[in-house]
Amino acid sequence: MMPIIFKQYLRSLVLGIVVFFISSGALSQEDNDLQFHGFLSQAYLLSNGNNFYGDSLRGSTDYREMALTSTWRVTPALNFAGQLISRDAGSADNGDVNIDFLFADIKAIENDMSGLGFRIGRVRNAYGFYNDTRDVLFTRPSILMPQAVYFEGNGLRELLFASDGVQLYSYWDAEENSTTFNFTMGRNKSLSADVLKNLFGPSAAIIHTAEFKTPIFAQILHSRNGGDSKIAFSMLNVHLDLRSSSAAVADITLDATGYVISAQKNMATWTHTAEYSLITTDFRTSQGAQTTEIESAYIQTQYRVRPDIILTGRYEYIVLDRDLRNETDSHHLVVGARWTPTPNWIIDVDVYGIRGISGIPGVDNANNMPLDQRTEIFAVMLGYRF
């Protein structure tokens, strides 16, 4: 056990040292078109009922994120971007240093009012308002993402955040409004044992191999008056092929199609956000098929007491099966405060009240089954960016 923990901290330490040297100017940038940025964040979580990201029932620091991001503008029409990340989130993420995204951005058409381009490589998926920036504490609304849309506690980030493939994007600007469009088609990829454990819990033991096939993500987003009002429609379509290691269980397929409707209103001191999600899953085995509709939504309000202090309140409603609404529903209430004393530093303090089991990481509670129907979480997170 100790060697595993030591290796996790060593990986995080190496990336942290690189981030420190770059942020302190030890690595110079001879060309202004080559830029480095990054962030570090560390959380403390204390819960009752269930664990969340480590042994939070006794207090957990097993939630940290470190990343180093680079952009290189080769020509006005060609850019490269990439990010290395180390993310430790209890048993859902192990702190390995991975390539989060890495792509070439080719602008095919661009003028004062519109543009069209392609990104090739590991590209970020536009899905809802927050998916493609979900790792940066400064750009998400709270320490934990809204479970209702982004499945934060279920360990699905690897499937949702980025795809290896091609992304088409375009934009159209007018005097008072702007519209953007993203369409991503990903390649097939094998899923790791950790992802399978997050998805299927103890049942993952019978899965020998799993392949995530041709994921498709698309989004159209319209904003007015410089972002005062925003609406978006997002969709995903994914397919899983699972090969069983048990002769008694035939191969399994899982198809999922999801939609998210998003709306946001920004005012002088208030920001109101709402998102609604509907995901239809089709689970097939040799013993038959089962179709399930997962419905969820949240409404969120943020109040800027001062430019550096924001208060947040959010209510989330999640139904894991619309045919069994009263038996599979969960309710999440979130209140929090954010202080940004400087542009580079941030501290968040959140309290989460959860009724139901949706979003609770099963992999963090393997020894606490069945899951408790009530969970409260106190969370503090400190973040730095450059």
Automatic annotation (TrEMBL):
SUPFAM superfamilies: Porins. This is Porin.
